[in-house]
User: Fold these one by one.
Assistant:
Number 1:
Amino acid sequence: SRLHSHAEPSTGHILELLRAGRRDAAYTQVVEATQTSLYRFLRHMLRNEEDAQDVFQDTYIRVFRSLDRFRGESSLMTWVLTIGRNTALNRIRSRKAKEDRTLSLDGVDHDGFHPVEDPRETVATRSLEDAVAALPESQREAVWLYYVQDLPLAEIASLTGRPVNTLKSDLLRARTRLREVLDDAGSPVEPRSTTP
């Protein structure tokens, strides 16, 4: 299930606002509906809070500039996550071109934007997050988008440029590995089926 509480405005509603010339109102609703999920996704991709905050801001600058080109061909969440993913990949390429970065800043308290933490998070949730973090990158991304963001496989394929069957294979391998890790930790998990 989704970890954010905002109900995503309908694509039609956003398009209506844009057609009515209410660009600022449309932008505000897009940000409110997607910011927590986008930030968590960027933290997941970049594994560095400072980079995630920078890319988070850069993503919404790009969203604002691209808003008039939004046609509703994918869900609002998928559209924003695609922009965020591409922005994060640019940051990763830039980071790799520089000298090795020092310690990850995960878990360090910083000023600035913080997603609202779900009070229902438990030790089992943390164990699951650690297990997911240990997966290969392609499996980690598929798990995040499918199980956490709750996106359909077709939208994940569109977002990542990977075939649905490849995603299914990644999810199957990831689920097998997560079940092994969490069974060892005494925290079994039964994620949703990958059958469309």
Note: The longest helix spans residues 23-46.
Number 2:
Amino acid sequence: MKSINKFYTSDDLHLFKFAKNWKKYFSRKISSYIKGDVLEVGPGIGSNTLFLIENAKEISSWTFVEPEKNFINELNELSGKLNYKSEVHNSTISEVRGKFDTILYIDVLEHIPDTKKEISEIKSKLKTNGTLVVLVPAYNFLYSNFDKAIGHQKRYNKKLLKSEVDLELVKLFYLDSVGLMASIANKFLLKKSMPSKSNVLFWDKILIRISLIFDIITNFSFGKSLIGIFKN
């Protein structure tokens, strides 16, 4: 993961750690796919991890792979709190040994310019019938100053994600239909390169709660984020 954009810093990670309702929401949607030996790639400061494991079952181990050394102390502290074998590597996925039942890319793939190379590395680290779980921002027409500021190379729709991930598709769906409206407003009206803490809290406490209902009504057919589940 050396190819992750250099603007991938702690600023946005520490800001979005307050989005607890969002983290609970997407974690519940993917928890049933998280099991066995787990590799979390690009966890940053680890603000998603406890939400990811909350409803997951049958976890044997958890390995963190984070290329940014400034995040390692926080990940080591988190690793010590887990109830099973856990390791932290200040490296890239290419440098990790062994194979895994589950590999997680939560808000990471969009930072990587050479996706083809990254997917090749993922395939080499997945066990037979292993699962890749990907969460990415949706719709490239919404690429904004915010995306540029936090190092996003692009945003995704279903067709693009399926074409880039050369694995068997299990499930593909959007989340946060109401948040999508907020992204459209920011793209064409507000044009903010970074939300404030109050912006994040409003989205998380108000808009996400409404999306919980509207996503069901719309059958998860559109949203601010896209989740893909793939099998090796």
Note: Confidence is low (pLDDT under 50) at residues 1-8.
Number 3:
Amino acid sequence: IMRGGSLSKCMMIVKKKPTDPDYEKEWNNMSFVVYDAPEAKGNFQERLQALQGYFDKSDGLYVNLHEYKRCEGKNHAENELKQEEKKGGEGILLTNPKGEYVKGKSKNVLERKSKFVGIATVKEVIKDKGDSQNITSLKVQNKVGIEFMINRGITGDLRKNPPKVGEEIVYEYKGILDSEKPKAPVFIMKVLKFE
């Protein structure tokens, strides 16, 4: 995790080489955050107590224990999500305190992220090189003039009957990147026009 930084900035630092300028200075803004202890016995609450015992003896300079709060209900979770997004975070995780550790996806951990909806104009229809009858993605421009590609949500009939250049589409996304492009845009539908 990078304190006060975005995911894209964090990824840029991780990819730097030790010979790059400001390598050490940039890495001093990074911190390794521990969320769970898969090897510890017990449910999540017990594993967290085991971790707390370790971190009570640590200086916490580069490795820190993630801060957890007890969820008081749906409204509390929604407020926490809004606060995290205001700070530039992507979302929150809700963890069952009595849940055992499961490798991979688990019903004991619920990921919560906001989804946003936008309208964009189709600038180009990108066709499959192997099959010119099918499309693979759409180059679009949103209402503030940002151009980006959409390749998710383009399935079935849409591949054979895509929107035309100049038509508007509805897309869903998970926030805005540093480049001002929408994050993970997904095609939802063509905008219906009524005469």
Note: The CA atoms of residues 177 and 183 lie 6 Å apart.
